[in-house]
Amino acid sequence: MFFFNKIPLFRLVMPFTCGIIGGIYAGDIINNSKIILVSVIMVLIVSFSLLPFLKKTSYSKKWVPGVLINIALFTAGILTAFVNTERFYPNHISGLDQKTYQFVVMANANAIEKNKSYKLEVEILNLYENGTSKNVNGKAILYLEKDSISSAIKYGDLLLVNGALQPLQEAQNPSQFNYKQFLLFHQITKQAYIPSTSFITTGINKGNPILKWINSLRENLLSILLQHGLEGREFAVGAALILGYTDELDPEIMRAYAGSGALHVLSVSGLHVGIMYVVVAWMLAFLDKTRNGKIIKAILLLAFLAFYAMITGLSPSVLRAAVMFGFIVIAKSFNYHTNVYNTLAASAICLLIYDPYLIMQVGFQLSYLAVIGIVTFQPLLADLYEPRTKLMSWVWEITCVSVAAQIATAPLGFLYFHQFPVYFMISNLIVIPVSTGILYLGLATLLSSFIPTLCNYLTLLLKWMILFLNKSVEITEALPYSILGGIDISIIETWMLYFIVVSFFVFITQKNIVGLYVSLIALLIISITQFIETIEQNSQQRFIVYNVNGNSVYDVINGTQNSFYAPSALVNDKDKMLFNIEHNWWKCGIAKQKIIKLDSIYPSGGILPLISSKKRILAIDSKFNSQIIYTQKVKTDLIILREDTEIDIEELNNYFNPELIIFDSSNSAKMCRKWQAACKKAGIKYYNVAKQGAFIVDS
């Protein structure tokens, strides 16, 4: 049974967390209004000042101290978010204009190779302008031109950079992943492309010595796996499982693990930390019999947890697990009884005070929800069936854990990933024990590196285990109907799903009829919102020119059907389609797509008519013959120019007389500037998709 009054920390973390979220979203308002900030501080002071006087409050008014405590915690959360928001600091780079400056920057991580550049997260330290130095602060993403220097940049390296920091780009297409918001939640506010001639390394490294040593050790451990024959996808998955190194994972293997419901094993989490904790605790068991042994053991375990968290990349799930196990270690050393909900809450409070922006990270949210789901629902599910054999007991235990975690994380999965892995129970029966074996074997392999022959045999066995894991995941993902995809729900619907889960749980465990009523009301709200959304989708008529670099991409949407025009290369590129297009299809409820590959059709005279119910739309490409003398004008609503077609804007206007000329993203910046100048001269309205984002109009 769930005793809410026995988990005070769990109850207190909720208003604190809500305050942090409110502070993050309302941060700019708070920063621009000193009155609001002072008011928040005063609420905190008054709330805590009144608490001692409320101890003698009559029983009928015992709720007053509770309300004050919740208000105080909520405002404390707002202040925590405000104080830790770097863009509010003096001399932050968010206030810089887009001029070219000379910067001194420090690499916050090793350079990551991309298709056309090296991506580097940096901390801006100094700015030079007209020979004078100015201290600035803030994080930025630099895309460095590929060369031998950029590839060798490591954590802590100082660079001298000439460049103009650009503001983060908004999402360029409807319903596209909001990369700007993602970076802002990581306190990154600027970005820039830096050619090879505009940066040099100083030869100075100012990184934290401990983190430098950790990064060096991690690279050495990865090199051990490579030197002893682990390569390709086996190395990528092994490095992710054992050391939390995910840079080598390719999109296909990620899709396979996601589709089978096994993606969680590729990010080091509570499972991995728990296994390592058990191993080290077992190795240090002899200390329990010595004087002060428990204290020494606790110190060594805490040091190991911190070390393992750092070497695996300090992801939110690792931080949560490490801090949580840290509280367990401390409690055991002093013989304190711990409640898992209070331990979870204590770890969350510590982490959020350290970095309140962790609450906005998907990994942090899913990690805590998964653990809450397991400790809450797993016992209930386990009681439904009593296995008669050890094998069935093991199978039932893993199944209950998997289902409990899915109950707690599925609504968030619908919101962020728009899919549900149907065969997650089957895949976890294989993935959990095999990944556990890989973790143990990987640890043994790394420890045996000083015995080359033994290490070679262990690496070979490790390779075959990872190969088996990959194949099992790929087979599961390839099964019919393995994924329920295209799920699109709003934040409100996500909250309603959680209201249904929690209130129905209360109804089942507490026999409280109110829980059933609340769950039914939440279900009714979801049904109403889905009904309204379905009506809107069936009546929608929309024309979209997407912004996909180097491509002409058009969508004519009529109800839940569409005609989609795009090059074959884009249509066949699953990652680009998912990132730029498919999220909008799910949002619009597109049930039937008609794909028209632009490179397989040959429009007459380079003019492609796009069929729409209300507007006359023509796309003109590089095959357009501007020398043709037209005898009759054709009134057109929208003209789309593509493929850098050589055309006279005034002649185009005289013949077609369009309401608007659109430059799609297949055109060069140089040609768009030329057209833009001509349109301004002729007084013609224009829209540059590459600069302004996708063009959307009711059609």
Task: Please tell me about this protein's structure.
Among the domains are: 4-84, no CATH class; 93-207, Nucleic acid-binding proteins (OB fold (Dihydrolipoamide Acetyltransferase, E2P), Beta Barrel); 491-533; 541-698, no CATH class. It is an alpha+beta fold. The strands form 4 sheets. Strands 1, 2, 3, 4, 5, 6, 7, 8 and 9 form a 9-stranded mixed β-sheet that branches. It has a 5-stranded mixed β-sheet with strand order 15-14-13-12-21. Helix content is 53%, strand content 15%. Helix 8 crosses helix 17 and helix 11 (293-311) packs antiparallel against helix 12. A hairpin with a 2-residue loop joins strand 13 (554-558) and strand 14 (561-566). It contains 24 helices and 21 strands.
Task: Determine Rg (CA atoms, Å).
Answer: 29 Å
Unreliable stretches, pLDDT < 50, 5 or more residues?
none
Number-wise, the strands total 21
**What is the beta-strand fraction?**
15-25%
Structural class: alpha+beta
Largest sheet properties? 9 strands, mixed
The end-to-end distance, rounded to whole angstroms, is 56 Å
Rounded mean pLDDT is 85
Outline, from the CA principal axes? Answer: globular
Count of discrete alpha- or pi-helical segments spanning 4 or more residues: 24
Q: Approximately how much helix is present in the residues?
A: 40-55%
